[in-house]
């Protein structure tokens, strides 16, 4: 049985669409738009090759294991009731170890690119000008904060429009060791961002 004209037309359309998509350039994910208080758009100029892809485990020394350091304390906490003053004291001990988490001096001043989740520090009509970057969903909001060397305090060149809490992004910028306290946890690094982009594997 021969295909009718409507079917032939449909097949021709599908074939044409596939051929078009095969040669059409796929654009990269768009960067988050930066705007100044005056409403001017900030267009970053940068060389992507200058930013080294960095993994979260690199932010701590090679021989540092936060879970090994706090294993005994966490085990003891598990055997106590929440209302027990000893549980609160042990939890304070775990938090102190994580707040003083050591940094990697080899990364100080380096231009890096790193993925993570957004935890807003400020947000207004123009968008965000500062946020924490954390390695997993819910950190600092739905769960206790990670060690301080796993929290980056990101400062932006201008307000970022369209950025929301727990957005998954890539951030390019210059990393510096700079400890600070925030309402969402202690951070051991500051990342001066050049670009923020939606995360694409």
Can you describe this structure?
- With 201 residues, the protein is an alpha+beta fold.
- It is 23% helix and 31% strand.
- It contains three helices and eight strands.
- A five-stranded mixed barrel has the order 4-5-6-8-7.
- Strand 7 and strand 8 form a beta hairpin.
- The protein is globular.
Low-confidence stretches: 1-28
CATH topology of the largest domain: OB fold (Dihydrolipoamide Acetyltransferase, E2P)
Q: What is the terminal-to-terminal distance?
A: 46 Å
What is the radius of gyration computed over CA atoms, rounded to a whole number of angstroms?
23 Å
Beta content comes to: 25-35%
Given this structure, which CATH class of the largest domain is correct?
Answer: Mainly Beta
Structural class: alpha+beta
Shape: globular
List the total number of helices. Answer: 3
Oligomer: single chain
* Total beta-strand segments: 8
Estimate nothing, just give the exact number of structural domains.
Answer: 2
Mean pLDDT: 81
CATH-level-2 architecture of the largest domain: Beta Barrel
Order of helices and strands: HEEEHHEEEEE
Order of strands side by side in the largest beta sheet? 4-5-6-8-7
| Estimated helix fraction | 10-25%
Identify the CATH homologous superfamily of the largest domain: Protein of unknown function (DUF3299)
Please give the largest β-sheet. Answer: 5 strands, mixed, barrel
